[in-house]
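Figure S7 source data.
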Amino acid sequence: MFEKSTWIRLPRNVVVGHGVLDQTGEAISDLHLGGTPLVVTSPTPREVAGDRVHRELAELGETPEMVIVEEASFDEIERVIDVVEEMNPGYLVGVGGGKAIDIAKMAAADQGLGFVSVPTAASHDGIVSGRGSVPDGGNRHSVAADPPLAVVADTEILADAPWRLTTAGCADIISNYTAVRDWQLANRLQNTEYSRYAGALSRMTAEMLVENADSLKPGLEQSAWVVVKALVSSGVAMSIADSSRPASGAEHLFSHQLDRLAPGEALHGHQVGVGSILTAYLQDGEHGEFQNIRSALATIGAPTTAEELGIDEDTVLEALTTAHEIRDRYTILGNGIDRDAAREAATATGVL
Ligand SMILES: NC(=O)C1=CN([C@@H]2O[C@H](COP(=O)(O)OP(=O)(O)OC[C@H]3O[C@@H](n4cnc5c(N)ncnc54)[C@H](O)[C@@H]3O)[C@@H](O)[C@H]2O)C=CC1
Ligand SMILES: O=C(CO)COP(=O)(O)O
Ligand SMILES: [Zn+2]
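Tokens for the predicted NAI complex:
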């Protein structure tokens, strides 16, 4: 008897392009959400877009509230939840980089409310996905939440954001190559459920970005367009899989471990990019995809070495040899690789 079932939760309105911030109200009206909006933003994104979004939402009829978050932490999520409990909004709107969007996403999920994502930086695929990632002391928690009901990504704003945030978003996408390979490996060795649709979409997204790597330049709105479309596509792959598997393999474990060992040193996307070079080498040796991944990262100006990440040799080796302990997710790291093997991979790939 056939007993499989699936539930794919996707954003309903994805609005991407030049000046689309002005369509935020329209994108939200179209969702038929009731009640007062609560805008969650952080200081710079507020100036860049938050105040404009607030004004636009006021035109929908309800006077919106706004809360400014300073850091990504469970305390800040609690603070936003307190505001929600006090004002009883109809929905949340996260305006900013990953920090404001994650906090809005997690507070909304906690309170059973919908949320809308208005990214001001194309820094990683969390701006579209249903997952939150929150630092907590020396740990980082990757938590399942709900995907945004709508995403409004204005390429004029994204193109104006610091270029390093965009290269981090690119690297997060490029890392899909190794994430999908690890997922397939886990499927073969551990019978982990694998979705061919999600795997193919995720890999194709990375391929399209690599094919366009030459044309990605700071300040070019076309570049912001290419990157944000790829982030949306990657988010959709995660929704289809109902897991971050299509976009998170050993390279992400390595990055999560770096977050513990060297917090705040480098951006998530930059760390996973370097992790992806190492992972590709571990997956296929010197004749595999690591060279293509490294040259695509170099072309867009993302880090390809520990030095460019600002992380020392010992920390890289420690992260690589302990990354498998982060969570129960089978990858090419298996039950862990030894320090000499880690050094060999890091040296052969030029990471060290
Ligand atoms: N949900 C997920 O799957 C993931 C979530 N994360 C989380 O996301 C956060 C990191 O995301 P980021 O976007 O790097 O952090 P962020 O939101 O702190 O933004 C980085 C910096 O860029 C500034 N910024 C943003 N947009 C700007 C603009 N248009 N112009 C000028 N400055 C601008 C911000 O003010 C901030 O100083 C962390 O909290 C991390 O845990 C990271 C990876 C994946
Ligand atoms: O960053 C992500 C995908 O790019 C999310 O992955 P995690 O589930 O490892 O946090
Ligand atoms: Zn990522």
